[in-house]
Amino acid sequence: MKAGKQWGLVGAGGVNQSFVAGMPALLGRLGPVKGSSLRISRRIANGFSAGDAIARYRELQPCGCIWIMAPEDTLDRLTAEMAEEVRLRDKMVVVCGALGDSQRFSPLRSAGARIATLNCVPEADERVFVAEGHPAVLAMLRKDLASDGRKLIELRPGKKALYLSGIHLGAHLLTPWIAGAAESFRAAGFSRAEAIRLTQALGSNALRGYAMAGDRAWSHAGAEPLARTIDAGMDTIRTADPWLAALHGVSAELLRGLARKKISSAAAAKLSVKLVARKAS
């Protein structure tokens, strides 16, 4: 083992390919490395060319900071096991890539650990991260990421679900509408390349308009006429693709809600969820 103050790592599930592998502050201080077995511990340490493989959690005891990088469905088990074997009072624990926030890990909190979660922001080339949790751990992360020219965005306490909501809305929940636009163009006679090109241009213009004007980019006055236009073409749309008709039905109701009440963006999102659930049922 190396001399001096060390950090520990509990890793599983491709940790050598994760953003942890590109964190020099961690790798430069890495001591004990715990995998699901001593063989896996050695594989992780060898993959990093750093750290020393260990077989038991208790060998993490000398570490002032312990990093955890593991699949989501194993985190609760791993953290509970670690809390049973390691005295965690005042130790820093950084849970990487977790979908929940630091309050989720009750065994660690009950043991007195100072916990933060750290996530790499998608599409940021591992240069921007978000974190939430104990202020001392956040200060350490901010300093170490800045030393490597990376940015840390600190989430407000208890607000990680909103960050994840933004990720899901921007990266996943838009997909049905993107696909619906492209498939509508294709059903109307566009080639796939033409449909994708036009959909991309429309989406880029909409995003650019929102970036410049915020909510003012949306015309409430035009919502009802647009909804009526959608309704008028529903027979044709339904004949082409029932899925497109359902998507348009949800969109038309949402447009009417916006026009009628001029509701806020947050209220519109709640309305959209209710409408999708109603269509699904």
Account of the 3D structure:
With about 280 residues, the chain is of the alpha/beta class. The chain has helices spanning about 25-30, 40-50, 75-85, 105-110, 135-145, 160-175, 175-190, 190-215, 225-230, 235-240, 240-260, 265-280, and strands at about 5-10, 30-35, 50-55, 65-70, 90-95, 115-120, 130-135, 150-155. The protein is elongated and about 70 Å long. The relative contact order is 0.07.
Write the CATH fold name of the largest domain.
Rossmann fold
CATH class bucket of the largest domain: Alpha Beta
Task: Give the biggest beta sheet.
Answer: 8 strands, mixed
Mean pLDDT: 86
What's the helix-strand series? EHEHEEHEHEEHEHHHHHHH
Measured as a percent range, the helix fraction is 40-55%
Form type: elongated
Oligomer: single chain
Give the arrangement of secondary structure elements.
Elements: E1 7-11, H1 24-29, E2 30-34, H2 38-48, E3 52-54, E4 65-69, H3 75-85, E5 92-96, H4 106-110, E6 114-120, E7 128-133, H5 135-147, E8 151-154, H6 160-173, H7 175-188, H8 192-213, H9 223-232, H10 234-240, H11 242-261, H12 265-280
Parallel strand pairs: 1-2, 1-4, 2-3, 4-5, 5-6, 7-8
Antiparallel strand pairs: 6-7
Helix pairs in contact: 7-8, 9-11, 10-11, 11-12
